[in-house]
């Protein structure tokens, strides 16, 4: 990557992707990952992309059903639509619990995009059946790229468990969708992983991932060619969407903050909860945050999206010739959030 890209990477990571740092994102961030992944996905030879998402953080104590979180499906929807806008076919793979939030988020964003997106359900648990089904999907669809967005990743490649950030094992209520990324890494397919805590599929090559809250090892062992880190995974997927669209001269069709809110609401209405607060309503206030995505309200996520768009538009030209210089006062005025 040319040295001229350094300024864009710094701006994007410091002011957007690692803006919230209380969960240790700075310990394992991969600053260049987002630009590397965005350039790779934008290439014309990448014609079909398989997106993997869905992280159920717990079981509902009343219903006994999985609790899918709002981080993942909205970002997947945003990335899916951006890929379609530049002429690429998209397949979305989730387990059953996460299918409804993913479909709802994409439909809220763009009904046409939802109509032209194929959804596949993957409920197999870790083991031979999951391995066979993963290989079958790759053989059937022949994706040029596989991207995982906020997908639980096993902490050991042979017999590992998948854990949430509190340390709870989530294998019983999450399909082993990370098997697709594992199998894709074995063949000539571009692989990308997006994560925010280090326990997600695709983070396997990163160092410095913290332990779970209970002290257990949650770090994913599942690697990807490009690891994208962000303080919430939706934002990492949105950053990829913006870079891809800018590369094709179509940043004007990037989803809006209003679209973003609609996707989060739709995911909640379809059964998703905030992964931190466990709230299922927009802007519910809890002791550990405000319900939206990862304990932050839609207000915060909307400002992040505005800032993301501003930086991509002003610092990254269509041909990746970067605009030098920074004006933090101008940026603060544009998005209404302080920088750290």
Low-confidence stretches at least 5 residues in length (pLDDT < 50)? 321-340
Question: How many β-strands, per DSSP?
Answer: 10
Order of helices and strands: HHHEEEHEHHEHEHEEHHEEHH
Label the CATH architecture: Alpha-Beta Complex
What is the number of independent domains?
Answer: 1
What is the CA-atom radius of gyration, in angstroms? 18 Å
In the CATH hierarchy, the third-tier topology is known as: inorganic pyrophosphatase (n-terminal core)
Strand order of the largest sheet: 5-4-1-6-7-8
For the record, what CATH class applies?
A: Alpha Beta
Domain D-glutamate cyclase-like C-terminal: 21-281
Protein name: D-glutamate cyclase-like C-terminal domain-containing protein
Pfam families: GLUCM-like_C
InterPro entries: GLUCM_C
